[in-house]
Amino acid sequence: GLGDAQAGLGAAQLDARLPDLTASVRAGQLADAQGNPGRTVSGNLNVKAGTLGAQVSLPLRDTSAAPNGFALSLSASLPLLGSGRGAAVTQAELGAAQAQLALDSALQSVELDVRSRFDTWMDEQAALNAARLTDEQARAALGSARARLEAGLITTLDLQQAELTARQSALNLTAQQNAAALAALALAQATTDLDPLLATGGPR
C-alpha cells in the first residue's frame, strides 16, 4: 500500500511539473489549387502524455501540381487562477502519509504480537522445567516407596499412593511438553520462521 501511494505521489508531482504542451508539424503537398492536400508527412508530440505520433498521407489522385509546404503548430495550456494539480499533489501526499502510518501501525502490531508470544513461550518453558523436576521427584519417591515396602516400613496403600503421584506427574509433564511445543510453534509462526499451514495440517 505504501509503494502504491508513493507511486501515485510521484505521478502527481510529475503531472504538476510538466506543462500541458502539444506540438505538431506537417510537411509536403499541403494543398493544391482546389485546397485538397497531397502527399504529406506529419507528426505530433504531447509533452504531458509523453506520446509521439507520425502519419503519412498518399492520395491516389495525381498531385504533381500541388506545391510543397511546411506547417508547424504549437499549443499550450497555462493556468492563470490556480490549478487542480496542486490539490492533486496534496491529496497524493496525504495518501502517502496515511500509508506510512498504516505501515508503522502494522509493524508495531507485529512486534507486540511477537513479544507476547515470546513471553508466553518463556513462561511455558519455565513451567516445563518445573514439571520435569516434579516428575523426577515423584519417580524417586516411587523407587524409595518400593524399597521401604520391601523393608516393611510402609504399607501397600502407601506404595499405591506413590504410584498414583508418579503417574499424575508423568501426565502433567506430557501436557506441559505439549503446551511448550505449541507456544514454540506460535512464536515461530509470528516471526515467519514457520509456514502457518504446517500448524493446521493444511496443504502447502
Description:
Helix content is 60%, strand content 16%. By secondary structure, it is α+β, with helices and mostly antiparallel strands. The C terminus is likely disordered. Helix 2 runs antiparallel to helix 3. Strand 2 and strand 3 form a beta hairpin. The relative contact order is 0.11. Strands 3-2-1-4 form a 4-stranded antiparallel beta sheet, with no helix packed on it.
Q: Helix count, per DSSP?
A: 4
Mean pLDDT: 82
- How widely separated are the two ends? 26 Å
Overall, the morphology is rod-shaped
**What percentage of the residues does DSSP assign to strands (E)?**
15-25%
Q: Which structural class do the helices and strands define?
A: alpha+beta
Low-confidence stretches: 199-204
Largest sheet: 4 strands, antiparallel
Order of helices and strands: HEEEEHHH
Give the beta-strand count: 4
Comma- or semicolon-separated keywords:
204 residues, alpha+beta, 4 helices, disordered C terminus
Question: Short description, anyone?
Answer:
About 60% of the residues lie in helices and about 15% in strands. By secondary structure, it is an alpha+beta fold.
Helix and strand arrangement:
Layout: H1 2-17, E1 20-28, E2 40-46, E3 51-57, E4 69-77, H2 84-150, H3 156-190, H4 196-200
Helix pairs in contact: 1-2, 2-3
